[in-house]
Amino acid sequence: MAVAGSGIPADLTQGEDSVESYIKKLVLQQKTGEVTEQYAITKHHWKPSDSRKVCATEGCGNRFSLISRKHHCRRCGEVFCESCTRYQMRLNTLASPDPQGRLQKYIVSVYINGERISSFLTFYCSFSIDIDMEVRRLKEGFKESVGNSEVRRTFLELRKMVGTPDWQRATYWEYTSLSTMCCYCNKEFGLLQNRRHPCTVCGFMACGDCCSKDLIVYIPNEEKGSKDPEPRIAVIKIVGCPEREPDMCVYLRICSQCHLYLEEKQVQKMQQTLTDQLQKTDLFWTKIVEAAKKLSRIRAKINAHLPKYQEHINTMGIDSGAPRASLQGENGIQVLARAQCDMSDLFVTFVLAVESIRGIQPSTTQQTTVLKNLVRGNYNFYQETVFLFRELRKTLEDTTLTSADILETIQKFVDRNAMRAVYVFLKQLALESLMLCDKFTLNNTVPVQFAEAEEVVCQDLKQCIKDCKDDWAESEEDINNVLKDQIQRLLYGTQ
Ligand SMILES: [Zn+2]
Ligand SMILES: [Zn+2]
Ligand SMILES: [Zn+2]
Ligand SMILES: [Zn+2]
User: Fold this and answer.
1) Ligand 3 centroid to 443 CA: how many Å?
2) Which stretches of the chain drop beneath a pLDDT of 70?
3) How far apart are CA 214 and CA 249, in angstroms?
4) From the DSSP assignment, how many helices (H) and strands (E) are in the chain?
5) What is the rounded distance in angstroms from the CA atom of residue 129 to the CA atom of residue 113?
């Protein structure tokens, strides 16, 4: 007896089963959730129903009665109350998870980053939620689907009306999406009222009250134009979230549990950055104050020396075009030459000091401004004074009254200074090579060679100093002072 157009397979209408009994069976299946024998999941592992008087869920304690019926978790076989078996999962007939299997009742427990969460779920078939991984998924998804494009962001808003985009679905979304009530307050979900809202982090379903749009994935405004922006994530209204709404952002739902977890992490991170910043700031200001002091010392010296230099030129009468007779003999030339060399030295030290400020790393905009102003102010000073100095020197060189012996004397001082620099440099090299030899237990051929070269340079230097009619002992002390500084820097890395 074939039933045309009824949709019932012909072979079922033959044999023992009548259509009537088949329909009866179908209705029964739907009522009980039982399936035909060939799909039946094993019950061998079920705990005997009478082994429990209360729900096996830790902390649930629901007592079984005529109204509160017993339910077996199809996965672990324990006995639970109805609200504790609200989830479904695809299992094969041997009760193992299987995407091809049928949906079966089961209970879940949740571990968030290895820590058991006991507030709302139970402890048998566990989910291990790796929040860091889920957060990464959200950031990457945002980057891919929105990135820096305003158009794509608008599209995302529209797209959300059709359903949750894949990147907003958590690892366990597939399993939890079948839950029938809020996992926090147990309110039943409805089609129109009290709709289910998945947490975009853990994937569990909650009502709107227990799962709010408090998570923001965004690209900081300062990175907006960049080619490869790095999305951030933050819980809003918590310290560490952006102060103003970034242009490129989406708000996502987050359940109370994940809210708590991420909030705590965010606060911790904020505290850490604040401590780091404070330490960095301290270091910055110490360095900047030191540098500023050093610069002002050199500036004071330049300010004191420059008028003296000018005075020397004036008293020699070169400036006024007075006859050569006003030159105060050889002694006067020496003083002038020395003053000129001192000035040159001061300018070199000054430029080096300004350069060294550039090595200080600012970490806030305020610090950058301070640093910039310090560098700019000092460069302006340099420009002004060095211009004056050059003008004076030019007068000296241009004047017809300047005799060869003045220039020669100046040259002597320049030579002396160059020689002194070479000498200091050699001494330093010798010391460094000695340190290296010591560290790596090498033989001391190189340091010995340096020492020999040093001896030769020392003789030349002595000659130069004599030519300038300077005192060797005094010069030696100067040199030693410079060397002491250098060694200290070499050994302790301080300035
Ligand atoms: Zn179970
Ligand atoms: Zn229960
Ligand atoms: Zn969550
Ligand atoms: Zn709720």
Assistant:
1) 67
2) 1-39, 86-89, 97-127, 158-162, 174-175, 178, 316-332, 397-405, 489-495
3) 12
4) 11, 12
5) 6
Domain boundaries, the chain: 15-107, 131-271, 404-495
User: How far does residue 80's CA lie from ligand 2's centre (Å)?
Assistant: 5
**Ligand 3 mean position to 260 CA, how many Å?**
9
C-alpha distances in Å from residue 328, one per residue of 135, 238, 338, 403: 84, 79, 15, 13
Q: What is the ipTM of this complex?
A: 0.64
pLDDT given for residue 335 in this prediction = 77
Distance 112 CA to ligand 1 centre (A): 18
What's the CATH code, domain 131-271?
3.30.40.10
Domain 15-107 has CATH 3.30.40.10: yes
- pLDDT reported for residue 446: 80
Q: Which two tokens stand for residue 154?
A: 């608008």
> What pLDDT sits at residue 28?
56
For 403, the token pair is 């005799």
pLDDT of residue 377: 84
pLDDT at residue number 336: 77
The tokens for 455 are 């001896």
**Contacting residues for 85 by C-beta, under 8 A, at least 6 apart:** 71, 72, 73, 105, 106, 107
CB 324 within 8 A of CB 401: yes
The answer to whether domain 15-107 and domain 131-271 are alike in fold is yes
**Tokens 């005192």 label which residue?**
471
- Tally Cβ neighbours within 10 Å of residue 407: 14
Task: Give the pairing type, strands 211-219 and 248-255.
Answer: antiparallel
Rounded distance between C-alpha atoms, residue 208 and residue 184, angstroms: 11
> What contacts 416, CB < 8 A, 6 or more positions away?
341, 461, 464, 465, 467, 468, 470
Helix (H) or strand (E) holding 218: strand 211-219
DSSP string, 454-494: HHHHHHHHHHHHHHTT--HHHHHHHHHHHHHHHHHHHHH--
Dihedral angle sign, alpha carbons of residues 246, 140, 234, 271: negative
CA of 70 to the centre of ligand 2 (A): 9
Ligand 3 mean position, distance from CA 79 (Å): 26
